[in-house]
Amino acid sequence: MVQKTRRPLPPAAKADAPAEPKRRGRPRGYEPDVALGRALDLFRKSGFAATSLDDLSAATGMNRPSLYGAFGDKRELYIKSYQRYRDNARAAVEDIFRVQLPLRKRLERIYQVALDIYLSGEEGPKGCFTVLTAASEAVNDPVIRAMVVDALSELDKAFARCFRIGQEKGELPEDADPVVLSQLASATLHTVAIRARAQVPRKELEAIIKGAIGVMCRGGT
Amino acid sequence: MVQKTRRPLPPAAKADAPAEPKRRGRPRGYEPDVALGRALDLFRKSGFAATSLDDLSAATGMNRPSLYGAFGDKRELYIKSYQRYRDNARAAVEDIFRVQLPLRKRLERIYQVALDIYLSGEEGPKGCFTVLTAASEAVNDPVIRAMVVDALSELDKAFARCFRIGQEKGELPEDADPVVLSQLASATLHTVAIRARAQVPRKELEAIIKGAIGVMCRGGT
DNA sequence: TGATTTTTATACTGTTCCGCATAATATAAC
DNA sequence: GTTATATTATGCGGAACAGTATAAAAATCA
Fold first, then answer.
1. pTM of the entire structure?
2. Distance (Å) from CA A18 to C1' C4?
3. What number of C-beta contacts closer than 8 Å exist between A and B?
């Protein structure tokens, strides 16, 4: 590929960026943030092993040495991509907790946001990166496995918080167990993520979610 | 590796094998069935992309040309491995339906068998091959994706059958929806498979299953 | 302008990979 | 024994791969 010399990017007057002092050498031809996003997209599509550095290079617009300098080797890039994914997911969930909502409504919101993530991408739905990582790298890489375990438990806790709040507000029977319900809620998210990868249409996924919420909130208001 | 010439295997007096007529050429040095099982083990551990033909060759004891001759290329071998996996799983489920059992007991049996499959292997638990395949190859390969969809729906149907039988026997409230419950039951299997890959201990998985069964069968006998 | 610094572009290295071509080996049929 | 057939053993070929060495380019600083 004949690659034209790239012009440096404009100073990127970001809202709350600390007005970077002039950097010494040749300016970067890429924005690390968007490059990491592209890498994440690729990894989410095909996983670690099936994604080559050439693919990543093409998608990010960075050549391999730049990739290496900015993010380290392929495994480190994967880990940083996963961290980015989790940060995004966490932020989305926190948003949902920021406002007061009835239990069912809050659950619906969470699943809706999750579906948007799972089904995003023009070349077909990509599912949940945690599930994908659990299914591939988690067995052979202790560091990545620990991240997966952490992500799973974080999700459980978020759902448990939903149910606890709901129970306190009387939206659930007193004998309902928020922990058990939270695991069922996570399970529903996981099954939906898997089915999304198999291109089950959104309508069906929404039906599964609706049914699950019905069972989980049964006996409540 | 210096490989000694292998002696042909004994005629393998299988119970109901059709007493094969004498085969013409040099006898096989392997049994296709056990070789396929070994291949399945490898694929289950690391997935399609991260498993090389050399790995497969070493594990099966077949060299690459023999592998190719017996099963076709890597993708075909993967597909045949997956078919084998599904055949095994299906047989196990059918066994459970052969005897009459109370609903809860039947569910417990299914999950117990599934856990045995998911946690098998000395080098760590391998999870559910359908989940693993959904997470990797299903996006890019329509044939494999169709197999995954089929496996998912087969599981849903098996669970739905459980709940329908239970409902007819009065073990579930009349307004319970077997389809919705079956999807929750599948979801529970999926979340357990994922957590197994992350090496969550069996005790915790069993607790999740117990809680889920409790919710799904709530209001019943 | 010239020196310094940072990033980019190109190309190289050694490895691994998949699939197959070729030849040796072991059996049955004649 | 000899021929035909089926399988195994070895190894080749070309591609893809991950990571890096080297040099060119583009900016600041003096």
1. 0.91
2. 26
3. 150
